[in-house]
Amino acid sequence: MGGFDMDRRQFxxxxxxxxxxxxxGKKTPISPVGPNSPISDSATMEYxxxxxxxxxxxxxxxxxxxxxxxxxxxxxxxNIDQEAVNELIDYAIAHGVNYxxxxxxxxxxxxxxxxxxxxxxxxxxxxxIATKLSNFDPSTxxxxxxxxxxxRSLKLFHTDYLDFYLLxxxxxxxxxxxxxxxxxxxxxxxxxxxxxxxxxxxxxxxxHGDITCFDYLLSQHDKYHWDFxxxxxxxxxxxxxxxxxxxxxxxxxxxxxxxxxxxPAVIMEPLLGGRLASLTPHENEQLKAREPERSIxxxxxxxxxxxxxxxxxxxxxxxxxxLQDNLSSFAPFQSLRDDELQLLYDxxxxxxxxxxxxxxxxxxxxxxxxxxxxxxxxxxxxKMLNEGKVNDNPDSxxxxxxxxxxxxxxxxxxxxxxxxxxxxxxxxxxxHCPQHIDIPAQMQRIDQFVESLRNNVL
Length: 458
Hints:
By secondary structure, the chain is α/β, with parallel strands linked by helices. It has helices at residues 8-15, 82-94, 111-119, 143-156, 174-183, 187-196, 211-219, 221-224, 237-244, 251-261, 281-290, 296-305, 320-330, 338-351, 374-386, 399-413, 439-455; strands spanning 47-49, 55-57, 59-62, 99-101, 128-133, 162-170, 200-207, 228-232, 265-268, 310-315. It contains 17 helices and ten strands. α2 (82-94) crosses α3 (111-119) and α12 (296-305) packs across α13 (320-330). The termini are far apart.
């Protein structure tokens, strides 16, 4: 019964008091032993139990968006700021974060390497490594190529076992893709053997797209015994994922199917690609009126953490201020009340009526063969829309000011040669987008809007 959707009242009724997490305890993590790692209030971090007794920090570190060094490095070169990564990981571990999620596909292929270097300064038992078999390209679908990718991950993390290992991007490309990448080539059978041998402690998958694939793998739970599953969940996607994109599945269904099987959920995109870090001025005011000292983003993180079957909530924290703000949401953690959950659902209902581009800035569409900054263009447009700075009424008093503001900030956010007007509509990005965005159409829409601003003809 794939894709069944409850309404909000039904879901809140089934959640009930369980939304207020009481079953997840705290423990004092092993003290970090790496350099420059002062112990502070790490014992206040909320921890959740994995199926094998792991105590996982409720805040997980997503290693997709590490800080880079200034300037543009050549394609294929590592431009990640290793010193900054070390500092971020030191601070995270010192404050109780112990789950680090990477992939061979992240950071132009260098995420595992730089994350492994930073983590290797600590004793192996002080952290959990999560990474993925990201064999997206058909050239990596063979058993030997996929096995080589898995072995390379072990090498880059300087370890002989992985704590959490995922089949990456299940649902992208449908059942044919699933069979070609994992089933027909025998690699899933091999990974099951690796789990039995202790080289993989927990085996799961991340889901994007075709619900048939999600339902199929869960139907085989008695065979595969999934230890966890990673899903996209936030207070908008709970009920409106399909409205944003008809090929997506509402998180009420995804979470519910995992919960009834006792499979812990790892949450990705709690901020919907950063779009829930700042809402419209009216929505921001509603949240600030309740919690003046908390950031808007903290509501989205606490929302995900308020569900008892959530193992950890991932955040790609590029800067120290992001990490510190998120730590304040989870250490200590305060679950949302039913009335607060309802407020977020009401905000979500307003949110989906905005013409936002449903981009999560995952970077899978990059690099564009024509050099466009696709996620940067979408991110800027969404930001300006959320802030009420997209004005299509030339008769309004604010039009000229907002027109100049948009053009100025667009030029600062995206280099002129990488803006939407350079898109030729080749469509090479389409198959790579897990949100199934019609990227050329959205780029054309933004280009038309920007050109009208430049020509002052709106």
